[in-house]
């Protein structure tokens, strides 16, 4: 049910914009921390088991949580804000209600802390390869502006029918998670309480933390979607055994409904797979135009990340396009560092969404021509005169 809900939310998203509240579909690309999402979900499950496991099993679960937190922090420190912070809050609330022994709380906290410390230590040797360190993403002074920006982005998303349905479902799941958390606290069900607690705590902690720390980018708020969806794994426990409705359904009827659901899901998956396979083999004509011109030129150019990522992916010699940012300087993010062995370029690629970047002084007097490829524009100077800062 949780998987189906995540896929349904994904199917409601179709915006080409990089910064929207269409966050469920980001799980499909490694560009937006999909490994961190999976690590957070897995850590919640492991912590839930560790909170109530028998003494003989805690050793292996503890080692697993230690290794997971170290690996997740090594690859992306967002794991601390997405998982460690909310998990600490939920565990503290559970311990306060005496449904979790304090020594279990301390053990889990120590494992997360030690694992995160090992992850940070592991990042030190890779420091020269990290484009931005963790502090580069923080700007406390922008908190007042973000308090306006994020609600505006939510309003933009809610303006469409698909967006309204998606956000309504997410808000409903967060509220259900809060109600379920109280229910499981009262029932002294520690496993379910921890999972449902993360369903409301993670979105709240991440939203408040992102605004307070000045973290610009809706992608940092992904726990809003995946954390409450995880509460759906508790659906059987949320249905009280005294509820008459499930008992009215005969066993064969339940089997038929389950079989029909499986058939529909498999059929939909097959159709979607065929459609995606066909679309993957068809190259966009604008990108084909750009790549043919670049290949024929045997020269190297530059452009913004969002402009060149498509043409660069299909280019026969990908390092003919170098990723830059304003002011015309190297932007080594999600690209090969060897690209920057070329220090000067002869043309600049722009598109309708991202106009021509700020060009270096030699471009002010040099003759040039423009080549149109649909939504792309190639500004060609004929020779490598534009230095990359």
UniProtKB/TrEMBL annotation:
TM ranges: 21-43, 63-93, 105-126, 158-181, 193-214, 256-276
Q: Is Transmembrane there in the keyword field? A: yes
Query: Which domain of life does the protein's organism represent?
Result: Bacteria
Q: Which UniProt keywords apply?
A: Membrane, Transmembrane, Transmembrane helix
Is Transmembrane helix tagged as a keyword?
Answer: yes
Name of this chain's protein:
Glycosyltransferase RgtA/B/C/D-like domain-containing protein
Q: Which organism is it from?
A: Sinomonas terrae
């Amino acid at each position: 049910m949780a998987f189906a809900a995540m896929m349904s939310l994904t199917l409601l998203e179709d915006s080409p914009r990089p910064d929207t509240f269409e966050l469920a579909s980001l799980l499909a690309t490694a560009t937006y921390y999909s490994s961190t999402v999976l690590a957070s979900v897995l850590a919640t499950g492991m912590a839930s088991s560790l909170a109530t496991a028998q003494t003989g099993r805690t050793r292996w679960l503890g080692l697993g949580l230690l290794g997971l937190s170290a690996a997740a922090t090594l690859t992306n420190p967002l794991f601390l804000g997405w998982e460690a912070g909310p998990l600490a809050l939920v565990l503290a609330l559970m311990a306060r209600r005496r449904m979790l022994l304090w020594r279990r709380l301390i053990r889990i906290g120590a494992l997360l802390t030690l694992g995160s410390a090992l992850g940070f230590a592991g990042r030190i040797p890779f420091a020269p390869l990290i484009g931005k360190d963790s502090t580069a993403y923080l700007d406390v002074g922008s908190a007042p502006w973000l308090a306006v920006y994020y609600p505006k982005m939510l309003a933009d998303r809610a303006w469409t029918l698909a967006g309204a349905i998606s956000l309504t479902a997410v808000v409903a799941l967060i509220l259900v998670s809060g109600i379920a958390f109280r229910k499981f606290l009262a029932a002294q069900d520690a496993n379910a309480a921890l999972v449902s607690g993360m369903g409301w705590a993670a979105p709240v902690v991440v939203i408040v933390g992102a605004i307070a720390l000045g973290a610009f980018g809706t992608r940092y708020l992904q726990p809003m979607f995946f954390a409450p969806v995880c509460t759906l794994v508790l659906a059987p426990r949320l249905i009280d055994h005294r509820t008459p409705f499930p008992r009215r359904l005969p066993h064969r009827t339940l089997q038929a409904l389950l079989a029909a659901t499986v058939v529909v899901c498999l059929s939909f998956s097959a159709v979607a797979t065929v459609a995606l396979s066909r679309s993957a083999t068809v190259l966009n004509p604008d990108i084909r135009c750009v790549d043919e011109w670049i290949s024929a030129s045997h020269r190297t150019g530059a452009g913004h990340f969002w402009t060149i990522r498509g043409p660069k992916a299909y280019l026969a010699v990908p390092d003919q396009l170098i990723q830059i940012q304003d002011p015309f300087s190297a932007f080594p993010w999600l690209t090969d560092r060897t690209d920057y062995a070329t220090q000067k370029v002869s043309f600049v690629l722009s598109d309708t969404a991202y106009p021509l970047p700020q060009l270096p002084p030699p471009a002010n007097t040099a003759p040039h021509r423009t080549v149109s490829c649909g939504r792309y524009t190639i500004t060609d100077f004929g020779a490598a005169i534009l230095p990359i800062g």
